[in-house]
Design a protein that fits this description.
Elements (H helix, E strand, L loop, with lengths): L1 E5 L3 H12 L3 E5 L3 H8 L10 H10 L3 E4 L2 H7 L2 E4 L14 H13 L4 E5 L7 H15 L6 E5 L9 H6 L4 E4 L3 H11 L9 E4 L1 H32 L3 H9 L20 H14 L5 H13 L2 H9 L8 E5 L14 H11 L3 E5 L4 H8 L5 E3 L12 E4 L11 H7 L4 E4 L6 H6 L3 E3 L5 E2 L2 H14 L1
Parallel strand pairs: 1-2, 1-4, 2-3, 4-5, 5-6, 7-8, 9-10, 9-12, 10-11, 12-13, 13-14
Antiparallel strand pairs: 14-15
The chain binds nicotinamide-adenine-dinucleotide (NAD).
Length: 459
Amino acid sequence: MKITVFGTGYVGLVQGSVLAEVGHDVLCVDIDAAKVAGLKAGKIPIYEPGLEDLVRKNHAEGRLDFTTDSAQGVHHGRIQIIAVGTPPDEDGAADLQYVLAVAGTIAGQMTEPRVVVTKSTVPVGTADKVRARMTEVLGGRGSDLHFDVVSNPEFLKEGAAVADCLRPDRIVIGTSDPASEELLREVYAPFNRNHDKVILMDVRSAELTKYAANCMLATKISFMNEIAGLAERLGADVEMVRQGIGADQRIGYHFIYPGAGYGGSCFPKDVKALIHTARAAGFEPDVLAAVEDRNNDQKEVIFRKIRAHFGGELAGRVFALWGLSFKPNTDDMREAASRVLMEALWAAGARVQAYDPEAMEEAQRIYGDRPDLMLCGTKEACLREADALVVMTEWQAFRAPDFEMVRDRLKTPVVFDGRNLYDPARMARNGIAYYAIGRGLVPPAAEAEAAAPAASSAA
Ligand SMILES: NC(=O)c1ccc[n+]([C@@H]2O[C@H](COP(=O)([O-])OP(=O)(O)OC[C@H]3O[C@@H](n4cnc5c(N)ncnc54)[C@H](O)[C@@H]3O)[C@@H](O)[C@H]2O)c1
């Protein structure tokens, strides 16, 4: 089937290549000429496991191509997928200018009927706006060509996007038109062989489903971060609590990891957008507002621990930072907790020596050259002469470091762990002061021994 995808970001590029991989003839359109030229030459603009091979293979085999020529894109596919960005505007609502621009482009250039599929995350009612824009543009051309607008939200996870698109757990199709339904079922048939993953619904429910999914996941994280804050104040260990509640199948282990706050291009903006949607509908979203507040505060927790440890004296200090991306297996730093931390450290006069397995170029792009940021070639290199190590992303490469080396390279043996990667007792045995999330401070070994009788009698 001939399919056009507008937008070659995390969603458009991955979904476009996966659709090509199963045999569809896919043309991806982007307005970013440098990106398109790079893609044609096999240069992948983002890091996503498995993506490079998939793009190169399908491009070489002629099922996947890239263009900036929107007319060619509109001409190519009976199905036109919109996968452009929907960033928040100043009041938190999803900015639909890119989506509606594509709708206008399709209507302005179509010469045959088209089915427009919104894959971008868009607020309830957007399909109606896309429809209205297209009707207006077609009307201006004196055309009454048939088109339909279908909602088909994307649930991929960055860092596992290719695998998620190759093996989706659900395929939500929002349409009331049987012909569009049939067409979309045909597109996704190769992903639907084991059992039927299609969940068919009306357009508005499909649009809301995507926001509800992301907001539910964000809620789990913020809830757990709230419990972590409580655990610290009550002398409990949130990691024990996490295991204790995760074992309950009604709760489960997913998305209950406490940490330095959620980031990325989706959760923060989608929570904001749904809050905006709710208020516009005259309904106060108490839970969502609390989820957002908790997360904003959580992104400052590690900085507060650092400031307290150093008695507020941070000017001139150097911090080794492991992890820049908002989560592992991606180079995406949008809304990353590492950025909030670095910016707070800089404002306090400290310097940062950072390492990330994939996001170094992105950090360089965002911050450029500045005297208080040194991007280091290895995780070991950034420890040199640092006052402390701070871990902000749970990359595999950070999970089992040589703690003796960490202790010996740091000026003072102290580790701030925004992802609860390490065992507090082991850190104490290594003589490292260790601050995590919701686990209290485990003092270095000597102090731990001195404190042991009191601790055991308290237990
Ligand atoms: N990133 C994720 O993990 C994820 C997951 C599910 C859903 N989504 C949603 O998918 C949408 C896209 O997200 P993303 O992360 O891929 O965005 P992105 O910013 O990585 O990519 C968007 C792309 O669209 C291009 N673009 C903008 N206007 C265009 C136009 N008129 N014609 C053609 N191309 C145009 C941009 O140049 C860019 O390459 C958003 O609505 C997002 O909320 C994202």
